Amino acid sequence: MSDLNICVLPGDGIGVEVMGAARAVLSTLEKRFGFRLAAEEHPGGAAYWRETGREMPQGAWEAARSADAILFGSMGLPDVRYPDGTEIAPHLKMRVDFDLFAGVRPIRRLPNTPAVLASPRAADIDLVIIRELTEGLFASRGKGVVIDDREARDTLVITRATSEKLFDFAFDLARRRKAKGSAGLVTCVDKANVFVSMAFFRKIFDERARNFPDVEARHHYVDAAALDLVRKPWVFDVMVMENMYADILSDVGGGIVGGMGLAPSAEIGLEHALFQPAHGSAPDIAGQGLANPTAMLLSTAMMLEWLGHRHGRERLVEAADALDAAVERAFAEGAAFPAEIGGPHGTAEVTRAVMDRIA
Ligand code: ATP
Ligand code: MG
């Protein structure tokens, strides 16, 4: 019995392997918490393009559109390209087509992962970067101009409509995190002292902040934010910023907690949502059983939590918390020590360690 359905797109390379882990863990959670998600799986991505000349089968795009959530592995392979020379990346089109304006990148230190920052407080790193995904400097993609080989221009776009949705999303997230013990703080990262677009961004942030008096609102210039992200990241809770700044700072964030296979992400709109690990298809390790499934599993937990809140299903939220806690414990107890960070465990061992801590 299920009235919620998810569209499963494993994609290419290790996307397929970590999706296998996610589906195994999902069925454990379904049994344990007594819910069912109808999952419809479709091929798609670079390998599919090589075989068929299309990104995804007919119907897969519509299945993604009509699903309650999209669970995504990774698409793209370096040697398979569109005629214009860029990599096969249908999910970049999904961001626009499904208006997935809020990229959610939790930056959290898991136990027993390499300490990139020396401070003992590095164990407390637990922040979320909210990346605007549909405009900012990336709005210029495909539209930049080179004039007479003398000059090049790209344009940064900030709209009120998208910014309002983005900030409301960030404040709402901070409020929910505060209920679980976080600081209840949103930091707007900008360069309002230099750019009119960024001053506009900040003005809208301040307007929206007034609707969330229980959440603290602060500003930080992007350069100072970069400094503090490596110097004292534990001072941040939710950070919200323009597309390009977030592109850079989320890699800094990934860097301070130690590995691509540890970084989950979500791309959220008002009508649609997509959940995927932050890493790519990693052809260098594909097919060897070495992929770290942690990012995929944490993305799956984010999906369950989002579905649970959106549809008022307490069991899904409980399952999300249980999965999150199981990952945390598997690392804390040394049962999950992925090869990616120098440990002995491949995809299967990490997945098993997490599943054992759910049941
Ligand atoms: P994309 O263009 O899709 O961002 P990319 O070229 O940046 O992809 P990834 O596929 O993310 O690269 O891989 C970067 C490096 O990190 C590779 O060496 C890869 O093996 C490693 N890596 C990425 N994800 C994982 C994972 N889940 N487990 C282990 N190693 C990983
Ligand atoms: Mg990359």
From TrEMBL:
Its cofactor is Mn(2+); Mg(2+). Keywords: Amino-acid biosynthesis, Branched-chain amino acid biosynthesis, Leucine biosynthesis, Magnesium, Manganese, Metal-binding, NAD, Oxidoreductase. One of its GO terms (biological process) is L-leucine biosynthetic process. InterPro entries: ICDH/IPMDH, IsoCit/isopropylmalate_DH_CS, IsoPropMal-DH-like_dom. It is an enzyme of class 1 (oxidoreductase). GO terms for molecular function: 3-isopropylmalate dehydrogenase activity; magnesium ion binding; NAD binding. The keyword Magnesium applies. SMART domains: Iso_dh. It comes from the Bacteria. Residues 5-354 form the Isopropylmalate dehydrogenase-like domain. PROSITE patterns: IDH_IMDH (PS00470). Its EC number is 1.1.1.85. Homodimer. Belongs to the isocitrate and isopropylmalate dehydrogenases family. LeuB type 1 subfamily. This is 3-isopropylmalate dehydrogenase. It comes from Stella humosa.
